Amino acid sequence: MELMVDNLMRPFALPFAGGLLSALVIFSVLVPSLSFHHNFGDEAFFTSPDGEVVLVDSRGGYVQAGYLDPRILPLNIAIPDNSNAVTLTVDENGKVCDWYVSRGQLTPELLNVVMFSQFKPATNFGLPTAAKVNAVQQVLPGRMRS
Known about the structure:
Layout: H1 2-34, E1 46-47, E2 54-56, E3 62-64, E4 71-73, E5 83-90, E6 96-103, H2 108-116, E7 122-124, E8 127-129, E9 131-138
């Protein structure tokens, strides 16, 4: 019986081992090329709150803020010396939940930004999260009070 099994298995053993070995080698060579590139576009893992100051003109329409009107800057951009600045904490819904004057004085324009602003909230791995941003208003020379 042992001789019969040996004679039956010997012709299949070498081709079976060779086929198994070559399949493993080919598979291990092809596996890296089977993955695909994940395209996240311009989305980063963490984004800052995003917003723009929009004002109401005399006819009731919305206009973009001018040079001396408040503007929104991320925290990593330095605040100019001749400016008033308020640091805002924007919650995950895009509303200001906390603020403090970080430079200069609180003007009515900056107070309007604090009270009425709606931001696109910051994200962390795609989920909305709270973050800080600066509202900065340039001041003409000789008009800034500290």
